[in-house]
Amino acid sequence: MKHLGLSSLVLVAASACASGALREEPSVRGGSAPGSPGAPPAGAGAVAVLPRSTPDFHPSQMRLVGGKEGAGTRLADVDTCEGCHLDIAATWRASAHAFSSFNNPVYRTVVERFRKDRGNDRSLFCAGCHDIALMVDGKMAKDVDPADVRAYAGVSCRTCHGVSATRPDGNGSFDLDASEVPLPRDKDPDSVLRHKAVVGRAPLRTAQLCVTCHRAFLDASTGNANHLIGQDDASPWMRSAYAGTHAARIDDVDEKDCRGCHMTKEPTSLGEPTARGGLFTSHRFTGAHTWLASMIKDPEQERRAAEFLRGSATIDVAGVVLPSGRVLVEDAPIVTRPGSRVSFEVVVKNERTGHRFPGGVMDAQDVWIEVVVEDARARRVADAGTEHEASGRDPSAHRFVSYMAGTDGLMRTVRETHEFAANVYNHTIPPRDTALVVYALDLPGTLGADAFPLQVTARLRHRTRNRDLQKAACDATLTERGRAFGREGLRKVARALDPCRPQPVIDLAVSQIRLSTDVGATSTRVDARGATATFARVHAYAVGLSHVVQERLEEASAVTERARLLARTPRERAIATGLLADILARQGMVQDTRTRLGEVERLAPGHPATARILAETYKTTWQWDLAAPHLARAVKGAPRDDTLWADLAIVRAGSGDPAGALQATAVGLLLQPRDADMLRVQALALPEVGGSPDVIPQAHAAFIERRAPDNAPGIRNLCNLRVPGCANERLPVHAHALRLR
Questions:
Q1: In contact, 633 and 608? CB cutoff 8 Å
Q2: Number of neighbours of residue 498 by Cβ within 10 angstroms
Q3: Residues 214/234, Cβ–Cβ less than 8 Å
Q4: What does DSSP say about strands 366-374 and 454-463: parallel, antiparallel, or unpaired?
């Protein structure tokens, strides 16, 4: 990643392996593989890469590097920019960026609770991304005045366009120049050039600008007992094919960054001067914010958000498990009998979301599956998840959510981030991955032939935030302070947001099948949206099955073999064979894995996934010295994937190569500065290469501070004991019982 450097990190020179002499290392460029330009040369001195926090607005990582006097007032000024950029300003005013601060009642409810519980100073953790105009003028130190125009600034034009440098840490890790912006003058081309030079800085053209705030971490400075990863849309994208990282699997998607999805082109209607060919770059930042669009009463923004969401993930009732075994849903009848047990295997695929689905604040998301079984007369036989829309608490609903618990093992549902102690499970889906969810039904023995065919409908449903958080925001808005912000909002931005309005619920995708019976003369063919067993459907099913516990991986192998038979092109065969090799690698079947990877190499020569899978085989069988060279090949083809650099560091250290391990951490920690695995390897490897006595304790302390919470297993066990269904939800693939009606 050529846009990453060392500005956010401390490089400490340690003693060289051979001579023991101290010397400064060359700069390590993030994304460079060992042996490539910018990486530490083999045999060079040991480099410790230590995370560093900036002192300016700690615990925010933001630095103000220019225009400090009156900075907040200038940042809150959107009108000046709007004087020329009418189209851009109009789209921005409907965006989540425009409503990121105290003008958003949901955020205001969360941050004011945080401030009450942990103090105003610590709330700079939030302010570095949400309340920049207030923060730089010192207005977060006391209660924020509803009449302060800076409380309504959000992430304004001058915020993003004033960023002069970025760092990979997150929590607002950018340098901001809030100096006056030179304005263009009529008939003065030089003034236009000066204006463009200031507002068009290099960080605007990289995803790293988005990374600075869409990656977050919690630690003692935020009032948390343990170091935890907060919201992070950046890392899943960097590890995915969308970012040009292809080691996870063989796939075919177009590379896109944040701007490619969230800042598309729109036709100009107000004469936007930046438009080219009648199109300008939209600043709606369209995403999943249907509720926000509803709160600001903007039907066009709500329509766009709903369109954006539909198709982002797909759902498919892909298989049925009968007493006789698993049956793929394809162009053939599925026959069952009353009184028997049937399990429907539902596949949800993250089809085109470049980060996890759903992303953002995964602990507060509300995406779930609704399943309904009806008889031939449209009478309901059974269901699951159907009560979740009204109650938000249907125990039969499978929710795509991250369970963040406090020390009591109970889920924190209203964004009490300062109480987060451990993650219990995370059901959100990485880019291009699939989740398999099982629904079990004991068919009533009283069902007659006239009840068939049974129709099974599965819906993937989306609501922006859970109902607990909505209630908290609604209640806070009805207080005198909430009403004061509503009144001032009408004066300042002509918008008073109402979080008490019902949230839009969107059906993202629907799948249906029919079951026939041998009670009666006629069997009914399956209707799966008119589709037959195509390669894409069966492969997605196989990927979902590959997430089962290791003892059941043979089931995934069988479905993957079916996908291989359905492959129509060499590329599809490579995709399926690569998945099969991955499954075999996890089982430690070295020779079988190598055989399959030989096929993959002929079909997709030099693909990084081949090297990664082969390394996985050797890792599984504890042959780390054999895994290391294959991981080194994998990172060359997927240099942004921090998990590969961590794996490379671990296997090199485990195979007796501490110097090589440090070479890997020197790059990987530039991508993920607080990764516990790489910090651990670094701390252990430095003494092995004769590292400086001054550096070793610093590296050790860096790891200890960011290691996985010691009490996490106990917290998860408390969830098992106190929360019905928690133990089942923690299984990677688990069954929900359908309710008989």
A1: yes
A2: 15
A3: yes
A4: antiparallel
Q: 333 CB contacts (<8 Å, ≥6 apart)? A: 516, 523, 524, 525, 526
Q: What whole-number distance in Å separates Cα of residue 282 and Cα of residue 266? A: 6
Measuring CA to CA, how many Å separate 308 from each of 135, 147, 258, 302, 579? 33, 35, 14, 10, 30
C-alpha span between 110 and 469 (Å, rounded): 9
pLDDT for 533 equals: 64
State how far the Cα of 585 lies from the Cα of 323, in Å rounded to an integer.
30
Count CB-CB contacts under 10 A for residue 43. Answer: 11
* Amino acid symbol at 341: R
pLDDT of residue 335: 82
- What is the DSSP annotation of 401-423? -EEEE-TTS-B--S--GGG--EE
Top CATH class of 305-465+503-532+720-740 equals mainly beta
- Helix axes of 590-603 and 608-620: crossing angle, nearest 10 degrees: 180
Q: Mapping DSSP to helix (H, G, I), strand (E, B) and coil, where does residue 322 land?
A: strand
pTM of the predicted model, to two decimals? 0.92
- Cα(20)–Cα(15) distance, integer angstroms: 5
**Structure-token pair, residue 340:** 């028997």
Q: Which parts of the chain have pLDDT scores under 70?
A: 1-46, 331-333, 518-533
SS3 721: helix
Length, in residues, of the chain: 741
pLDDT recorded at residue 331: 53
Query: So where are the chain's domains?
Result: 63-256, 305-465+503-532+720-740
Tell me what pLDDT residue 15 has: 29
pLDDT for residue 485: 94
pLDDT given for residue 46 in this prediction: 66
Q: What are 403's strand-pairing partners?
A: 425
Nearest Cα neighbor of 373 from 432, 295, 451 is 451
How many Cα atoms occupy the beta-carbon half-sphere of 303 within 13 Å? Answer: 3
d(CA 729, CA 711): 20
- The amino acid at residue 265 is K
- Tell me the CA distances in angstroms from 525 to 304, 358, 514, 516, 532, one per residue in order: 37, 34, 7, 7, 11
Whole-angstrom distance, CA of residue 683 vs CA of residue 697: 8
Q: Sort 721 into a burial class: Cβ within 10 Å, 0-12 / 13-18 / 19+.
A: exposed
pLDDT digits (tens, 9 = 90+) for 71-102: 999 999 999 999 999 999 999 999 999 999 99
Q: Give one DSSP letter per residue of 237-283, joined into a string.
A: HHTSGGGT--SS---------HHHHHS-EEE-SS--TT-BTTEEE--
Write down the residue that tokens 């409810």 correspond to: 109
pLDDT tens-digit map of 245-303: 999 999 999 999 999 999 999 999 999 999 999 999 999 999 999 999 999 999 999 99
The secondary element (H helix, E strand) that includes residue 528 is none
Instruction: Tell me the residue type at 448.
Output: G
